[in-house]
Amino acid sequence: MAQTRTPIIAGNWKMYKTGAEAREFAAAVRQQLQGVAGVEMVVCAPFTALAALQETLAGSNIALGAQNVHFAEEGAYTGEIAPRMLSEFGVRFVIVGHSERRAYFNETDAMVNKKVQAALQHGLVPIVCVGEDLAEREAGQTFSIVEMQARAALAGVEAEQVAGVVIAYEPIWAIGTGKSSTAEDANEVVRHIRKTIAELYDQETANRVRIQYGGSVKPENIEEFLAQPEIDGALVGGASLAPESYVKLVRAASR
Ligand code: PGA
C-alpha cells in the first residue's frame, strides 16, 4: 500500500527559465541531491531548456520532464511537439492536462486521454492533472469532477499500463494562490481518485498508482501532505524554481 509507492516530487517550471537558467539550476541541485534515496525527482521544464538539462543532469538521479505533448506521431501541427521529440532529449515524464492548459489552451478531457495514450505508447510517464475549481468545490462537486476527469483520462488505457501513470490532484483554486488545500481534504480527494481507479481496474492496480497533490506546495507545508497515507508526493510550481527550495522539497520526501 502506501509504503510500497515511491513518492515523486515533480517541479513544474511552467513558462520560467531559459536554457541558461536551467543549466544554473541543475548545477546547483545535482550535487546536493546526490545519493538522496526513497524519492523520485523530476523537473518539468520548458521545451527549449530540455537540451541544456539533458546535458547538465546526465548521470544524476533527477529525471527530466516536459509540460505538454501532442498526441500525434508527427504531422502538420504547427507549434506542437510529438512524444518522440521529447524522448530524443531523454525526457521520461510529461505533464498532461494541467489546469492552465485546460483553461487557456482549450484542452479537453478527450485530448487529455489521447495524450495519455500517446505518452504511454512512447514509454513516457504521463503526470495527469485533475482538480476542481472554486465554484465546483463550493457546490460540493469535487469528488464528481475529479472522478470524471480521471475516468476520461484513463479511457482505453490497459490495466498493465495504468500503474505507470502518475496522477496529480491539483485543486485549481490552490494553484499559485498561496492557498493550499488542507492535507486532510487533499487526502480524501486522492482516496476518491484511487477508489475510482479501483473501480476501473482493480484494487491492487489502484494501490500501485502514484497520486500526487499540487497547489501552493512549499518546503513549509510539504510535510503535512507527505504525512497523508494516500498522497505520494507533490507537483510543485512556484516553489520548485529556486534550487534551495527544490532541494528542501525533495529532502522532505526522502525522509
Ligand atoms: P503552484 O503550482 O505550486 O505554484 O501552486 C502548482 C502547479 O500548477 O502544478
Structure description:
The two termini are 18 Å apart. This protein has one domain: TIM Barrel, CATH 3.20.20.70. Helix 1 packs parallel to helix 2 and helix 1 (19-32) packs parallel to helix 12 (243-254). Helices cover 42% and strands 16% of the residues. The chain is globular and about 45 Å long. With 255 residues, the chain is an alpha/beta fold. It has twelve helices and eight strands. Helix 1 (19-32) links the parallel strand 1 and strand 2 (40-44). The mean pLDDT is 96. The protein has an eight-stranded parallel beta barrel with strand order 1-2-3-4-5-6-7-8, surrounded by five helices. It has helices at residues 19-32, 50-56, 83-87, 99-104, 109-121, 134-138, 142-154, 159-162, 183-200, 203-208, 222-226, 243-254, and strands spanning 8-12, 40-44, 62-66, 91-96, 125-130, 166-169, 210-214, 233-236. Residues 12, 170, 175-176, 214-217, 235-239 line the site of 2-phosphoglycolic acid (PGA).
| H and E order | EHEHEHEHHEHHHEHHEHEH
Overall CATH architecture: Alpha-Beta Barrel
User: How far do the termini sit from each other?
Assistant: 18 Å
Low-confidence region ranges? none
Under CATH, the topology is which?
TIM Barrel
Name the hetero compounds present.
2-phosphoglycolic acid
Structural class: alpha/beta
The CATH homologous superfamily is named Aldolase class I
- Mean pLDDT comes to 96
Strand order of the largest sheet: 1-2-3-4-5-6-7-8
Number of helices: 12
